[in-house]
Records
---
Amino acid sequence: MSQAKFNKAVKIVQSLPKDGPIQPTTDEKLCFYQFYKQGTEGDVSTARPGIMDFTGKAKWDAWNSVKGTSKEDAQKLYVEKLLEILKKADNEEAKKYIAEIEAA
């Protein structure tokens, strides 16, 4: 899996409209987050957020759950997760994104 495929996948995820036909679930968004952070920064290196920061804790826990995964594997998993969501969506926009990733 190439860096270009990962970069293209990140751009696609970041560009998905909030009210568009392809809507990742909250769990899928956390999955993207954990693999993105692991794939770009490596293992989590910050303290777990405080008790009232529910979103921060969920993100930290998700990232921490993939501790030890190589950056390359995390990037591959990120792309695979996006392709899984796009194939499930099965619409023209999804097909266009799949072609873009495969061409990268």
---
Amino acid sequence: MSIQQYKKRFLYNNPLRCFCCICIVLSQYSCRKYLELDPPATSVNASNVYNDNSTAIAVVTAIYARMSNTFYDQGPTAISLYPELSADNLRLFSVNANLNYTRHYQNELDQRYINVPFWNTLYSIIYSINAAIEGLSGSVNLNTVIRDRLLGELYFLRAYHYFYLVNLYGDVPLLTSSIYQESIKVPRTATNEIYAEILADLDIARKQLNNLYVDETLLNATSERIRPNIAAVNALSARVYLYMKRYPEAEDAATKVISETAMYTSDIPLTEIFKKNSKETIWSLQPVKNQFNTDEGELFVLPDGGPNDVHPLYISDDLLNSFEPGDQRKAAWIGHINADNKDYPYPAKYKARFGEETVSEYTILLRLAEQYLIRAEARNEQNNTVGAIADLNVLHTRSRAAASPQVPNPLPDLPAGLTQTAIRTRILNERRVELFIEGGHRWFDIRRAGKIDEIMTKVSATKNGNWQSFKALYPIPLSDILLSPLLKQNPGYN
């Protein structure tokens, strides 16, 4: 991250700006970009923002609002969009309408292409997090419960954002300070060291948080699952341990979440899973834009006329055919539009579109089903095939619960006696049909399974693309490399 870029970003990401931003965003009077907010006329400033409980809370809440408020090409939906385009779950109706979409879809990203959404967005938020950690750590006037809770949330958020940086780009600079002069002194840090820092942040978060979801005061319990708790920390830890192939720790962390049966359950209808505050939800983002539920609903649900230049995305035949006969997830989470005598299946996990005044859906960032899939994989890799099959069958049980008389052969349980290799194949497909269009899982899964070259060589031919192995990682923007002499590009993009 260059000094020039950081000066610009940090100028607009200090606590004072955060406080102003949250007041504007949450009141829903503006959807302007975070960096475009005018200087506030207020007596609150960076020197005293952390001396008051309400303004300190507002600083951290502003980070959630920023994550939620950015439009879908930059916000939380971006991670559920672009990696899916890069992989094999989506089709693009028109390659001429949106250059962002086309470059990801055809795996033709270029270091000179400045509109790759993740690098700048993720680091910008990390700088805000670092500044808030420093401000809170130096405060002596806040309610201790509030200060500790906020710090726990911030360390969790930093871990969450670094997880995506390291999985999109590989080795990345590890920045834990808000001092912009230090940014050009940091070369790329090895992936295993980034993971170590992620786990360290999660350990701090675990000590600072509890099992409760709290309201805007941070002192009262709430049914809103929009601020992370210990379960969110354990859920992200389980994911990180799985990616690191530390299978016993991944199993243990996932089990801690799954065991919270009073709070989380898979025993709910498929149509209820993506409703706000469902018992499948571990952590979600609350919408803050007027008349929006989720950007996913607005982006993925096709209009009656079918895909067009504004809504060009639909589900690939390969994903559609990955569902086994009788799997009710296919019916519940995939919609269909017929246009010009052609069927267009589209992601319909989120169904509410722009203009609906009632907020019924939140963007879910962590949910219970992933924990069963993590534990199944961790158990299988430890040769506990019985336990792995049992976890996969929890999701099969849920899927066939919605079967109707018109589905005479609902999805069966997996049979006992499957080999470890067979279960690996099952898990990869189960992750695909359960987690499609969520969090970039498919792109990350085929890479860590060692199948990305095999799959993408075949898929790229259908996209008029040209797959090469180095494209498994995204390029770092050339502008940052030119301004930061120690920052090196990913191989293949020079």
---
Amino acid sequence: MNMLRKHWQDLGLIIAFLVCIYLILDWGTLPRINSILWLSFIAILLHQFEEYRWPGYFAGLFNKVLFQSKTPERYPLNQQSAMIINLIIAYVFYLPPVFFPSVVWLGLAPILMGFFQIIWHGIFANIKAKSIYNPGLFSAIFLHLPIGIWYIKSAYEQNMLTPVNWMWSTIYFVVAVYVLIVKGNMWLRNKNSIYPFSKKQLGSYTKK
């Protein structure tokens, strides 16, 4: 478990690489929606790698800038909670739509979360940190955004987007954000956590 706790984002990068190979080999045979959903899954894995490995100092920004934590290495976010929340987001929220592409609301919800990442990293986090970049912004703009637009365009052309699908996907997206991101970080917070982030994951956001 300790190995996974320290390297879950690296495992995600390997999985993203393997999925890329799969897509390259089968691109001509896969339905377009399936291919886009696989790309969406790759996008979240690379997004998490950007946040927690390279440049990887999202944890420090989150704890110090957003929560003014006196112990940013472990509160409110820590290595354990970051692993749990991000694994659920990637493999429970983003991955299932790949296997059920006809369930449009299931696939559209992660697309909406990708757009949400652009707002969160590009506007909210940058304003709080008084910066023009923070880990996660690059993948949000150059992966989540174009993939999301492509998905909506393709689904629209195939008459898959209905008001009901928009409604259920929006509800599912909002619930996922609330449970996994908003409440998840609160439920798993621990001022005495024994799973602190590394200095690299804190960046310049230390106790000082």
---
Amino acid sequence: MANATFYIIKPDTPQETPEGFGLYVIFLAHHFAKQGAKVYLNCNDKLHAEQLAELLWQVEPEQFVAHNLVGEGPKYGTNIEIGHQGLKPSWNRQLVINLAENETTFANKFAEVVDFVPCEEKAKQLARERYKIYRQAGYQLQTIEIEHR
């Protein structure tokens, strides 16, 4: 059975800021990739994907994990692939970290979905809609409150 995990971002935590959230996404991507998962980062658009790719290049050398944008890199991709709506991820991806606000049509291609519930009310409502869509698609759902790191 497919799983969807929503990470809840609490107010007044580092993850509430764009910089802190980006670092947390990188932490999660590295965590899953180091466990052997082929991770797909689903962004809002091309600019968002490129910004995230740049952020992945800025980690400390000992924390670096190979990554590529969809269509770039080796034939079977690296452990972390970055794309956006309208692009097709490599066939061998098991886990998607969804960073897009209202896109869920990709989800049925993955055994594991990671999504987020932001603090801002409009974004929180969009997360609720995605949650309902995953539930209707038969995903096993869970929520996790992000611990301050």
